[in-house]
Design a protein that fits this description.
Chain lengths: ~500, ~240
């Protein structure tokens, strides 16, 4: 891995190598299965989970429908509280705004709270180009940064690493980023945490500028909210003189009361905790307390385009709890990097192609990175019907259609490489529309059944199947023929042959 | 009560025994079944791969072919789910009636006929894999298990990670062959660990994937559709 998602291969190709990485598979299996069981328990404790889930979905839906209104309300409130609001249409604009803001402070080092929005925009790389070093302070994010790696999970970006690997990274890399790790560092979690604490403390005490994301923005008061487990985020939010928060525009809720729902569903879904350890809220600036300058960068980057799609827009309800990743059997085998985006797993498979469009081979392959088993939908605390959106996006991949791109309704062409498949699907439909032709086909298959080998030596779909599974042989007599032979052609009172004679 | 069978394309061509078992079972329970020959495929492979337009005529044909029946019984959780969950998204108006009348086999037995003991005999250890669409889209709940538990001679053994997808997923098995195979291997391993003689599901398509993986591994456990277990009796073993 090397710090960028650009030019990554399609999902199946990336997954082909990760499924063979047994250490990765072991790390992921252990981590996801542990949290999976705990989540189920934490959710079961609440008698009104179904209502909370429905309330969360309804709240987000209503807010999204009136997004323009709430964003303006938020801007007024933030400005009134002494903050400044900046609007960023895309990643580039957001990065430029942030780099300029940092430059104005005269600083060249910034500390960061883990933030998905800035991963999405590639802010760290953009800042580096501008001569500014950004230090990640979330423990897992620190591991990713030191290892010159990419995050592979929404909540636990270094989930693909085990203790051994983390110790090696700390020993080798910490020194070049600041305070070095002790020479005799072991893989004991307490020792690893202590090494990170000392390394980070140095950063916090020197930092003049902090950069954060936010889990929620409250429109009525202009308040931003971060929930976290380590307390490192709170340090970033309170110690620096200047705080810059980069937040996706969909993270808004109308009132404080709305938080009541999400502060119950989010921790239980993500870390299986009843309440998350640190909930920090900040509103503009306050004299003598916390940062004296506050900037809010509101990021669109494909969100209003997503909002324009009536089926796909439900992805914007996501509160990034990561429950869908933890139950996903595909994520568990393929690993987070295969998704080529800061948003891996089921939510990544529907969010990334909507935010980025489906021009690249990778993005066009993401809607297919699912067996449609529905486990993600079942656990999602805001009831995003992920399978529904996957199928909807698949249609856009193979058939094209209308979509909104940068605010314009556009007709999209089907993605390349589906012509043969499309022809097969059409031919199949014709056959199914003519059951008599289908029966002929079945008879041929039955008569030649012994010719169907259990393994196929040729490339193609059959090969993909028969590499690990035996191919079933057509039966000597189809059900249809058996029915005819034993019951005659009568279909117990219905002469309907449909389009048989056509 | 006019009942029609919908024998899905996989059943029809590859696993006709399942359809025959459904006929045997339902007739034993006093149900007269019909098989309208105009039926074909539910359109799931097309719909789930993104070819919604190709699925439209198939959905309408389904609604048309089964119009005159009180109930349609489908020995497949995933095809029943296609009808009930996705037809309303394809053409709500044209398929309305058919959607309401369609039952997966175990639902039909438990909810419509009101039986859990169907008088079956199957002297083997069996483990049960609840397929995703039956479990999550149809909400079959414990219906299949209740039916299996009432079978004479059958010993039901627990399957680890039972509710996890086997990795079939229709075209997923081909488009993402590596991940699908890895999922199938884990499922097969858990099945082997039960030492059961048979693994049972409500879906032949998942069973095709699971069975193909098991035989490739040289496992002793064989795949069997629930209808084939329920159809056997002490007098007439299947
Ligand atoms: S899609 Fe749902 S389950 Fe997945 S991260 Fe978002 S809120 Fe959580």
């Amino acid at each position: 891995m090397s710090g960028t998602y650009l030019g990554m291969p399609s999902f199946p190709r990336a997954a082909a190598s990760s499924t063979r990485d047994m250490r990765l598979r072991g790390n992921l299996r252990h981590a996801t299965h542990t949290i999976r069981a705990k989540r189920a328990q934490a959710v079961e404790e609440l008698g009104d989970w179904a209502q909370l889930r429905a309330a969360g979905a309804a709240l987000k839906n209503r807010t999204l429908r009136h997004l323009d209104h709430y964003l303006e309300q938020l801007e007024t409130a933030v400005t009134g509280a002494g903050g400044q609001v900046h609007w960023a249409r895309d990643a580039e604009e957001a990065n430029r705004i942030v780099a300029d803001l940092v430059r104005e402070t005269g600083e060249s080092d910034v500390v960061k709270v883990k933030s998905m929005a800035t991963q999405e925009t590639g802010l760290n790389e953009a800042l580096a180009k501008a001569g500014i070093s950004a230090y990640e302070t979330d423990l897992a994010e620190l591991i990713v940064q030191l290892g010159d790696d990419l995050p592979s999970h929404i909540l636990v970006p270094a989930i693909h690493r085990n203790r051994d690997q983390i110790r090696d990274i700390f020993r080798e890399k910490m020194g070049s980023w600041g305070r070095a790790a002790p020479k005799n560092l072991s893989d004991d979690p307490a020792e690893l945490a202590e090494a990170a604490r000392l390394h980070l403390r140095e950063k916090f005490l020197n930092a003049k500028v902090g950069i954060s994301g936010a889990n929620f923005m409250v429109a009525e008061t202009g308040t931003l909210v971060v929930v976290e487990s380590e307390g490192n985020g709170r340090m970033c939010l309170t110690l620096p003189e200047t705080l810059i928060s980069v937040v996706g525009i969909e993270k808004i809720v109308p009132t404080w009361q709305d938080l009541e729902v999400f502060l119950q569903t989010l921790p239980r879904s993500s870390t299986a905790e009843r309440m998350n350890p640190y909930t920090s809220t900040w509103t503009g600036t306050t004299d003598e307390d916390g940062p004296s300058a506050f900037h809010l960068v509101l990021l669109d980057n494909g969100r209003t385009d997503t909002l324009a799609d009536t089926v796909g827009r439900q992805a914007l309800r996501c509160i990034r709890c990561s429950a869908c990743l933890n139950v996903c059997p595909v994520y568990e085998r393929a690993g987070g990097h295969a998704y080529g985006s800061p948003y891996p797993g089921p939510i990544g498979a529907i969010l990334t192609p909507q935010l980025r469009g489906m021009q690249s081979e990778l993005d066009a392959s993401l809607p297919y990175a699912s067996s449609l088993c529905g486990a993600c939908y079942e656990v999602c605390p805001v009831a995003i019907d992920i399978p529904e959106v996957l199928v909807h996006l698949r249609e856009r991949v193979v058939e094209g259609g209308t979509a909104t791109v940068r605010g314009q309704r556009t007709t999209i062409k089907p993605a390349k490489g589906h012509a043969a498949e499309r022809a097969v699907m059409r031919a199949a439909r014709w056959t199914f529309e003519h059951p008599r032709a289908m029966r002929t086909g079945q008879r041929i298959a039955s008569r030649t059944r012994r010719l169907t080998p259990r393994r196929l030596p040729l490339p193609g779909p059959g090969r993909a199947w028969s590499d690990s599974r035996d191919i079933p042989r057509p039966a000597p007599e189809s059900f249809r023929d058996w029915w005819r032979r034993t019951r005659g052609s009568g279909s117990a009172g219905s002469g309907r042959e449909g389009g048989d004679a056509r | 009560m006019r009942v029609a069978l919908f024998i899905t394309c996989v059943n029809d061509t590859l696993y006709p025994r399942t359809g025959q078992a459904v006929v045997t079972l339902l007739e034993r329970l006093g149900v007269e079944v019909g098989f309208p020959e105009g039926q074909s495929c539910c359109g799931q492979p097309q719909f789930n791969t993104g070819y919604r337009k190709e699925a439209v005529p198939l959905a309408r044909r389904y609604a048309d072919v089964f119009r005159d029946y009180d109930h349609v019984v489908v020995p497949s959780g995933s095809c029943a789910a296609m009808v009930r969950d996705n037809y309303p998204r394809i053409d709500a108006e044209a398929t309305q009636g058919a959607v309401a009348r369609t039952y997966e086999l175990t639902e039909f037995l438990v909810d419509v006929l009101g039986v859990t003991d169907v008088g079956a005999y199957y002297p083997h250890t069996v483990t049960y894999h609840p397929t995703c669409h039956g479990l999550r889209m149809l909400g079959l709940g414990d219906r299949p298990r209740r039916l299996l538990e009432a079978v004479k001679g059958l010993r039901l053994v627990e399957l680890e990670g039972a509710e996890e997808c086997c990795g079939f997923g229709g075209t997923f098995a081909v488009k993402n062959a590596d991940v699908s195979a890895a999922m199938g291997a884990d499922k097969a391993r858990h099945i082997e660990e039960t030492d059961a003689e048979a693994v049972c599901t409500v879906d032949n398509s998942c069973l095709m994937h699971i069975g193909g993986t098991l035989t490739r591994r040289g496992a002793a456990t064989r795949p069997v559709h629930i209808a084939e277990i329920l159809a056997g009796t002490e007098e007439a073993r299947l």
